[in-house]
Amino acid sequence: MAALAIMLTSCGFTRGGNGQIVFTSERTGNWQVFVMDADGTEARQLTYDNNYHWGPVWSPDGSQIAFTGDWSGNREILVMDSDGRGVIHLVTDNARVDEDPSWSPDGDRLVFSGDANGDLEIFVVDSDGTDGRQLTDNAFNEVHPAWSPDGDRIAFAGDLDGDFEIFVMDADGNKPLQVTHNSSIDWSPDWSPDGQYLTFASRQGGSWNIYTVGVDGAGLVKVADSGANEVDPVWSPDGKRIAFSSDRNGGYAVFTVTVDTGDVVATGQAGYPSDWTTGG
Ligand SMILES: [Ca+2]
Ligand SMILES: [Ca+2]
Ligand SMILES: [Ca+2]
Ligand SMILES: [Ca+2]
C-alpha cells in the first residue's frame, strides 16, 4: 500500500485535502459523470455526450476513468481520460450486457459483470480490451465486482440463495466465500483500503442501509440508516469515511459518514458516488 500511495500522490490529480469523489448525476438531463471535492465543493462535469454513463471509477494512477456506457443498446465498459476532454475508448464491444467495472490495483485489468446464457457472470479484461476471460459460470447472477486493494481477491454480490449476498473469491475466480447471510438484498460491495473490511448496501428492515463487515463475515456494523434509503457506498482512501447516496432529504444526493462515529455530512451534490480517490 505504501508504494501505491506514493504513486497516487505523485500523479498530482488530487485537489481538496480529503480527496475527490467521482459520481453520476442526471441533473443536466441524462446520466453524466461529475467530480467534486469530498466536501461537495468544486463540482465539475466530465462527460457531455447524450449517452448513459454509470459507475465511474479512477484507474489506480488517476489518469483514466472506467465506467458503464450505453452506446450500443446493451451496455459496454468504457475508459476515458480523467481530464474530461472527451477521449473515450471502448473496452468491450459486443451484443451482451457489460457493466460495473473495477480496476486491478496495478491498473492493467478491469473486472466487470456481463450476461452469458441468460444470467450475469464476472469477467476480466485488459484495460485495452484484449485478453478477456470469464471467471464465473453458473445459473445465478454475479454483479458489482470490486477488486481487492492487494489484487488477490474480488468481491461481488450474487443471488445463489434467491436474494443477493456478498461474496469474495480469488482473482482467478476460484474459492468463492460467502460473506453475508440474510434474507435481504445485499448489494454493491467496496473494500476498505486495508483490505480487511467490506462496505455494502443492504435492504434490511424496509429501507436500504449502509453496512461494514469483516471480509470473513464477522463484525457486521450498520453505519448509516436514516429510515430513508442509503445506497452505493464507497470507502475513503484514508479508511475513515464512506460516501453513499441517500434520498433522506428528497432526491438522491451524496453524503459521507465517519465510520467510527456514524456522523453524517451532506455534500449538497445530487447523484450517486462510485469512487473516492486520495488527497491527504
Ligand atoms: Ca455489450
Ligand atoms: Ca452467473
Ligand atoms: Ca442477502
Ligand atoms: Ca435506510
Question: What topology does this entry show?
Answer:
Elements: H1 2-10, E1 20-25, E2 32-37, E3 44-45, E4 53-58, E5 64-69, E6 76-81, E7 88-90, E8 98-103, E9 109-116, E10 119-126, E11 133-134, E12 142-147, E13 153-158, E14 165-170, E15 177-178, E16 186-191, E17 197-202, E18 209-214, E19 221-224, E20 230-235, E21 241-246, E22 253-258, E23 264-270, E24 272-277
The structure holds calcium ion (4 copies).
One calcium ion (CA) binds next to loops.
List keywords for this structure.
mainly beta, Neuraminidase, globular, 3% helix, disordered N terminus, 47% strand, binds calcium ion, 4-stranded antiparallel β-sheet, 280 residues
General description of the model:
With 280 residues, the protein is mostly beta strands. It has one domain (2-277): TolB, C-terminal domain (Neuraminidase, 6 Propeller). The protein has one helix at 2-10; strands at 20-25, 32-37, 44-45, 53-58, 64-69, 76-81, 88-90, 98-103, 109-116, 119-126, 133-134, 142-147, 153-158, 165-170, 177-178, 186-191, 197-202, 209-214, 221-224, 230-235, 241-246, 253-258, 264-270, 272-277. The two termini are 14 Å apart. It binds calcium ion (4 copies). The site of one calcium ion (CA) has 8 residues, from loops.
